[in-house]
Design a protein that fits this description.
Elements: H1 2-10, H2 13-21, H3 26-60, E1 62-64, E2 73-82, E3 85-94, E4 103-105, H4 108-140
């Protein structure tokens, strides 16, 4: 888009034709730029949501145990046959992964790594803002 504007301002019709030949028309190029803008916006939104989720995990200092889904217990089914009838019995045992707490405490070193990762993600999001502003300026001029 920038090359197109520059070529138009310089009066270079050949370069304008070459640039537009990839897209068919100026409108198609603008549509492509807007499509990319939309994609970047969506990615930026998902990134910000993930950063918020990770920051919540860091703040809590723990995560829900996936093994027991936070209950602290694992349900085991046993089938007992009595007189030709099979009866299921449910037995809840303590989850070995979280020792029955339902959560797993994060080590400080891991929380520090998560914090560094979220800082990098925030910088990427800021870059996305800058890129979106640039795309917006280019397409509106």
């Amino acid at each position: 888009m920038l090359n197109l504007r520059k070529s138009e301002n310089e009066g270079s019709k050949t370069r304008v034709i070459l640039i537009l030949s990839q897209y068919g028309s100026k409108e198609a190029l603008i549509d492509e730029v807007r499509n990319r803008w939309s994609i970047i916006t969506d990615i930026k939104q998902r990134l910000n949501e993930m950063v918020q989720a990770v920051e919540n995990i860091i703040e809590k200092g723990s995560i829900q145990c996936r093994e027991c889904k936070g209950t602290g217990k694992i349900t085991k089914v046993k089938y007992v046959r009595e007189g030709g009838i099979i009866t299921p019995y449910f037995d809840a045992i303590e989850c070995q992964k979280c020792q029955g707490k339902g959560i797993i405490k994060l080590p400080d070193q891991f929380k520090n790594h998560l914090a560094m990762t979220t800082n990098i993600a925030k910088k990427v999001s800021e870059f996305g803002d800058t890129l979106l502003n640039l795309i917006n300026e280019v397409t509106l001029q």
